[in-house]
Amino acid sequence: MSAATESPTPRQRLARCLAPQRHWLRGALLLALSGAVLLVAQSWLLAALFSYWLLAWQGLAPAEAPAAWWLPALAACLALRPLLHAGREALSRRASRDARAALRRTLLERLGELGPARRRYGSDGALGAKVLEQVDALDGYIARYRVQSRLAVLVPLLLGAMVALHSPLAAGLMLLTAPLVPLFMVLVGRAAAGASRRQLETLARLGGHFLDLARGMGTLQRLGATAQAGRRIAAASEAYRGRTMGVLRLAFLSSAVLEFFSALAIALVALYLGLGLLGILPWAKGEVPVIYQSALFILLLAPEFYAPLRQLGADYHARAEAEGAMDELAPLLDATPWRPEARRAPAQGVSPPRLDCRELALFGDGGRCRLAPLTLSLAPGERLLVQGESGSGKSSLLEALLGFSPYAGSLRVDGVELAELDRQAWHRRLGYLGQQPPVLRGSVADNLRLAAPAAGDAELVAVLERVELWPLLAKRQGLATVLGERGRGLSGGQLQRLALAQLLLSEAPLWLFDEPTAHLDPDAARRLHGLIERLSRERSVLLVSHEADGLDWVDRRLALAAPAAACDPSAAAPDTATVATHRQETPACQS
Q1: What is the mean pLDDT of the chain?
Q2: How far apart are alpha carbons 170 and 42 in whole angstroms?
Q3: Cβ atoms of residues 166 and 296 within 8 Å
Q4: Nearest 5°: phi and psi at 112?
Q5: How many CA atoms lie within 13 A of 21 on its CB side?
Q6: Is the Cβ–Cβ distance between 66 and 49 less than 8 Å?
Q7: What is the dihedral of CA 90, 92, 95, 101, to 10 degrees?
């Protein structure tokens, strides 16, 4: 069976998503059915009362006087039905909120497990739109359509049975015309489903494009291209608005068609009952096949007979939107992050670990070699500089050390294969700093406590002094200094120093750096390298950098050669990754 056949459909994914919420949805369905039963009782009481008053007004002796409980029962029905409807809405919203929260947690966990490999599934902007916008697109399906699809079957059957007790012909007319509503709902809804799916795809692309422009705003300002970028965003927004109006037109068309056919069906039933009361039916002239009380009862139920079908048609676009959203989320949900089967905790303590790589190789899609076979040892407390051209596998090596990438060959930590270690426990022994520091919107203290939640203010001030950032912050609001999105308020070098403070708080014995000075000017880069030298003493360091200025303090250097398009780890000779002594460079691997 092919992978495409094994992949679940969007409808199956929605069913799995809603499985834990079925008790809330069943409760909502039960309340809605209770409201339908109260509707039947309310219609019968109204019909009986109006029939009695009509006969009394005409001076005829009513066959049965109203019971004393009729009016209180009618008042109870009128009061309880809105309460049952409110309860149904509350339970449906609860199911929707919990289901979307669970799905969002699953997506965030999947992104965390993928690590840097998440780039295969879109830019950060597109992934953010999926996690936020497309998950919220399930709300209408869960909160309205799911229960309504059951009511569209059960309520017409219940009301049709009640009508059949008074007029089988009227019940037959209602049951015969009822399929027209879902028929046209499907015909018109298919077009709305396709338009909604295309709209979600456009929204994801627009979100990614906007985030890319926002991140590059500094570059755009220096190039004087902000006006051009603004025009592009305005044009894309206008195109999105136009497509949104197109989707709304289809949705309104669907609702109009459903209203037309349901009104036509109700008019047909009313025509039959009216002609029958007048005694001018072609096949029963002079006869009244349905008495006034029963006719009024049927007319009161007729709109409610078609109401669930009409509401289902109005909510049909919610199903189309939800299926489109699940279709967009499918690649991320089907992603298979590398999860080693064996689970062993790494050695505890603050001493740096020993790393041993033997013929370590990484491969991408189609067998493409991302890192040529590498043999390397990193002693505890040793600091190593890794250099090489773009595509030589520097970042891939860090991904392997972080435990996010499957690898060929051997990668041991203190003599234990990395694939056998518990990833979360291993991450607690690592400190990682890339080109973009992990700074969130909030105060400086909040950002520092991401690494050490229990740290006190005195400890935070001490690490800020060690990274030479406290004198600047003390002139502002100290630890309460608020940073904007992506660390707005501090320069690039200052943000990297704040990230170094986070590493110090984490007390990780092994530090990994991926081009930490890539976006800094030479002076700021040299200053940051000097800080890393002082702060990383008695720790193991593996630093990836194109630049060597200010890095003469490293113990060894390793130059990676670009791998071939495909490489076989078994073909690599031992010690192909011989590292040079201090201030020397030797190619690490030959393609």
Answers
A1: 81
A2: 20
A3: no
A4: -65, -40
A5: 25
A6: yes
A7: -80
Residue 580 has pLDDT above 50, yes or no: no
Helix orientation angle between 180-215 and 226-278, rounded to the nearest 10 degrees: 170
Sequence-distant (6+) residues with CB within 8 A of 9 are none
- CB-based burial label for 512 (10 Å; 0-12, 13-18, 19+): buried
Q: Across 323-382, where does the E strand assignment appear?
A: 355-363, 369-378
**CA-closest candidate to residue 410, choices 338, 346, 356:** 356
Structure tokens at 429: 């022994």
Identify the CA nearest to 381 among candidates 337, 360, 350: 350
Provide the β-strand partners of residue 557.
385, 580
Given a cut of 50, whether residue 72 has pLDDT beyond it is: yes
Closest CA to 32 of 251, 308, 258: 308
Contacts of 564 (CB under 8 A, 6+ apart): 369, 372, 591
Strands 540-544 vs 510-514: parallel, antiparallel or unpaired:
parallel
H helices within 180-225, ranges in order?
180-215, 217-223
What mean pLDDT do residues 465-469 have? 89
Contact in structure between 563 and 374 (CB atoms under 8 Å)? no
End-to-end CA, the chain: 37
At 402 the pLDDT is 86
Cα–Cα distance for residue pair 294/50, rounded to 1 Å? 11
Domains of the chain (ranges, CATH numbers): 9-330 (1.20.1560.10), 355-571 (3.40.50.300)
Full-model pTM: 0.67
Determine contact, residues 60/31, Cβ cutoff 8 Å: no
Report residue 275's pLDDT band, with 50, 70 and 90 as the boundaries.
Answer: confident
288: left (phi over 0), alpha (psi -120 to 50) or beta: beta
Structure tokens at 559: 């130059």
**Half-sphere exposure (Cβ direction) of 318: Cα atoms closer than 13 Å:** 20
Per residue in 336-370, is it b (16+ CB within 10 Å) or e — as a string? ebbeeeeeeebeeeeebbbbbbbbbbbbeeeeebb
Give me the count of residues in the chain.
Answer: 591
Contacts 24+ apart (CB under 8 A), 563-566: 563/369, 563/370, 563/371, 563/372, 563/391, 563/392, 563/393, 563/589, 563/591, 564/369, 564/372, 564/591, 565/368, 565/369, 566/367, 566/368, 566/369
Q: How far is CA 101 from the centre of its chain?
A: 9
What is the rounded distance in angstroms from the CA atom of residue 99 to the CA atom of residue 12? 15
Closest of 478, 496, 479 to residue 487, by C-alpha: 496
- In this predicted structure, the answer to whether residue 98 has a pLDDT above a threshold of 50 is yes
Eight-class DSSP state of 580: B
